[in-house]
Amino acid sequence: MINVHTLTFSPFQENTYVVWDETKEAIIVDPGCYDASEEEALKGFIESNELKVVKIVNTHCHLDHVFGNKFCQDTFGVKLYIPKGEIETLAMGADAAARYGIPGFVTSTHDELLENEGELTFGNTSLQILYVPGHSPGHLVFFDKDQKIALGGDVLFKASIGRTDLPGGDHQTLLDNIKNVMYALPDETIVYPGHGPFTTIGDEKRSNPFVRG
């Protein structure tokens, strides 16, 4: 059984997720910690709960989701896993930070690539990998089919969807993948998004103004 803890970081109000199971092995999904106080908040939560971080994972590699990649790699001594379609996006991080006028961006380098299907494992847990591009070219979602939990990145939000005007984005691709991939999940699935509050697949199918089920 997995536990999901949310920490919201940076001016982008990005949701960083610490996910662990009964073994106390944990993954950090989309570490967005930007300054020292946010880094300490993440580290402090992990230490106070006696968790063992075994992987750093990105759903996609836009700037706000990778601020803390290098800090986590160095602090916890583990590998960074990114989608295989996000190599170029990760490499553009410093340029994106400059465009937004954000100082102090620390570049990270991936250690392992995630395929567009298969499983992401830690402890006793296996999360299904779902390929859901559109917001970014290689975007992945991680789904726990037993507890019906989706770590959704910037695909689907409460009453909204991910933006598609950044490099590699495509609006119709995103809409199609929400309908064909996300909305194929059980209605009771809880979606933990990259920004804002959690939602469920059923709620979005009924009331999302951009994509109805």
From TrEMBL:
Coiled coil: none annotated. It holds the Pfam family Lactamase_B. Residues 13-195 form the Metallo-beta-lactamase domain. Its cofactor is Zn(2+). Keywords: Hydrolase, Metal-binding, Zinc. GO terms for molecular function: hydrolase activity; metal ion binding. InterPro entries: MBL_Glyoxalase_II, Metallo-B-lactamas, RibonucZ/Hydroxyglut_hydro. This is MBL fold metallo-hydrolase. It comes from Flammeovirga aprica JL-4.
